[in-house]
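User: Okay, second chain of the day. Same drill as before: sequence in, structure tokens out.
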Amino acid sequence: MIKCIFTKSWRFGKCLGLIYYLGEINLKHPDLKIIPEEWKLTQIDKLFSIQQGKQVSQKNRIGNNQFPFLRTKNIFWGKIDLSELDNMNFSEQEIQKLNLSFNDLLVCEGGDVGRTAIWKNQKENCFYQNHLHRLRVIGQKEVEPHFVLYWFWYAFQIGKIYFGRSNVTTIPNLSKSRLGELPLPLPPLPEQKKIAYILSTVQRAIEEQERLIQVTTELKKALMHKLFTEGTRGEPQKETEIGLVPESWEVVPLGKYAKILNGFAFKSKDYNSSGIRLIRISNVSHGFLVDKDDKYLPYSYIDKYSEYALHKGDLIISLTRPIIKDGMKYCYIRDNHLPALLNQRVGKIEVINDRLLKNYLYHIIFSPYFIEPLKVMAEGSNQPNVSPTRIEKFLIPIPSNIDEQKEIALLLTLLTDKIEQAKMKILNFNNLFRTLLHQLMTAQLRVHEIDFELLTSIERDLENAGS
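Assistant: Same drill. Structure tokens below.
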């Protein structure tokens, strides 16, 4: 996808070498030393007025002028989350001083230093705390706030242009004066706007896929409840230990039709620089494997420890800390995960009776019948471990008719695939965004060199999704 955008070879043309000194910083970063001649190097307080918010304290919460306010936890790169807002008292003077206007930038002073979002009048009479800086364009300065947002994103997150600018304390912070001194390469206004348009289009595409995942996940959850309690045949229901299920269904321990194999305790002395991938607890996340401090075993181990070898379609779960924020730590093994061996405390679920369809079991595992008991086991422990024997005792509902299992699995797989496709699109769009962010902000790619056909296609998709 990324290659489709580049239609011309990059050439800097005539550039201006700049070595810029500012206070205690020697700005010899490669991305600031050479910029196009038509760009200028300025600093933040030449373009923006900076206002820090109100301190949060018990005293400041008392009063009759209670208004919601933003914290650093509400500010994310490029977006603001208003789902959780606290209230504080603001005097008339503070209301005038700390008001928010359309296109104000909000920059985190602490926490993830420099994290920035833009205010779009999402809520009336909303203010902000002292760990946030409000940046407002001075007069008629030729600056596009969205461009500065994306410059901060690049400079703080990717290019590390401002590395070392935060005060080094137990809580790193970016003071008003230091923020104001930060250097800013500034293209002409039309180019700023085009850069902001390009990056915001990709960002909106990411947000649309995130919305799609949320909606589809909620739909899948509702459908799972309906299918596992009513089935697909419209038959009468019966009351069981786990609630209502169709009359012909069984409610049995998982271990009657499946078993969980615990991995082998491979030692560090077995590790190799390359070879068979070892799947450990740290590699298992919510629905996928992550590359995290990967370990490898000699190729000969695939035969020596064949019972711990993974195959396409295997279901694995973490037996230590199995529950995370998004749900369970699990994975469905695919071709690109292989060859691989299973480490201890990672369980492989194997079907041992042909009366249970593996694809049906896959969806049961991620239903409340499976997750809720895991949550109970995980509560109150710093290192919750769940034994295969205990999991095999979980009660699950199983249609006696294999065809009905197939129907349920198919319906849920369609929604699962839709979620997985959206996740893959997010991965691709994120890669595209980071590439564009780096190359546009360093002038390695100029807006006139971009094929806007792809962006037009993305916008069409966004319009169709909105309708």
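Confidence is low (pLDDT under 50) at residues 1-27.

User: Thanks, on to the next one.
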